Amino acid sequence: MSSTPPLSGHALQLAGLAITAFILALTTASHAELPETRPNVIVFVADDLGWADPGFRGGPIETPSLDALAREGLEFERFYTTPICSPTRAALHTGRDPMRLGIAYNTIMAWHNNGVHPDERFMPEAFRDAGYQTAMIGKWHLGHAQQTYHPNERGYQHFYGHLHTEVGYFPPFAAQGGKDFQENGKSIEAEGYESFILAKEAKRWIEARDRTKPFFLYMPFIAPHTPLDAPGHLQAKYAELEDDRPPARSKFTDDSRRMSRMLMQPSARPMYAAVVDGMDQAIGQVLDTLTQEGIDENTIVLFMSDNGGAAYASGGANNAPFRGGKGETYEGGIRVVAMMRWPARIEPGAKAKDIISVMDVFPTLAGAAGIETGVERKLDGRNLWPALDSGERFALDRKLFFAAEMTVPGTLMATVFDDEWKLVQRIVQTQLNTDVTNSLFRIADDPYERNNLAAAHPKLVADLGEEIVQWRALHPVGGTPRGIAPPPGWRAPKDWVSYPVPIDELLDEPAPGMAPPALRAVLDMQHGEQGRIIYDCEPYAMLGGGLCK
Question: Does residue 182 belong to any structural domain of this protein?
Fold first, then answer.
């Protein structure tokens, strides 16, 4: 009977090294296939969704996806945005007050050449630099004249969608007649309904992702922005929907509805409902993809509207019981539907009753993901994740300000508020006069803004009004211009992919303007409440301090 001779010491040593190397190789291979434990992040943004319109608020529109997010996650009862589109998107991406950015009073129109300063750090840049895959699928509306403003230059490794707003819900997708549908700077064709097209691309991108890295996906819909349109089966579903919305208690909004009825125009409510339903279905398709991929438990999903619903005649939204709507600084224009789901960390059915603003989103999501914002300038938003994670209350540490210029040049609405008081100003400027109407609400007790207490508290009105003046003085003088009409004779490009000026054709530094360098600080001081010449400049001279540099 034969036997195996014992191994020598040297042989044993070699065998041990071989086994160790084999185990190390297996471990390394295994780790390479394991996904990151950091959460994925998806930010859904609706365009002009009304406060009362989701199904979970008791409305007549079917929104099972939004209902599920509210039921399974954390609902924000006091989430505030600006009253209009571009300023909200600027605040969302930077965590900074859009007044500082020069994008506060108006949206970026197709004929404008401005955007967010390239020196500002965007949220996807922080996630990209932390090892995340980043993508944007949908509507941009944050600048298009130079490549420096393009989504691919602001942290999004993948961009599929539109540079502009109001491109339509069916092909050809166009802005002011010029084609506006691209993938990473290349014009593309797509057939079908806009919301479903975006969902299909989101599903494709998620399934094709690098599974060893987490991802950040920003998905801003054009729905339910005007002009409204929807597939035939959704139109039929809501064809008999009665428009039983209560008055918005806003002259602009209610007058538009009254005039529409006088002109025997059909209500926009049924078509609006169809568009909201379609958006909800698209969101559901993306959520289903998370489940199918087995990553829904560790994916943060934030949903929000960019402003209050367009409750005027052509909009069809309902913000009741709040007052007003899109473009106004009443609660109906700035207090929006918002919720966040993260099954791994957030208890289902929770409600946050404290004030959170769109400026808080960037630092809060970064905090939840455990990454650094990397922002060098002062953030106006707060990292609320520790409080949200623990279920603790969080106090507002400063007043919030919002403003918007209405469609009529010279008609502006502004507000300043905290937990207790809210001042709403309607400012109408003619060529020779300025008329200011003040409405003061004890917002803690009167969230529906029914009782104007301005006459009873004149000093408080004056003090809050002065704070609005100082806040508006932060706006760069060359910021978002007013106007809903293009310069006379302006023409859109045939295809907007050709429009942004390439970076290699631009100078290395931002233009200094006409002011001589030696006089810039003095001129900035002299402008005072009219705005800033020097970017991101506090009007120190007004406050008794030194000059901006």
Answer: yes
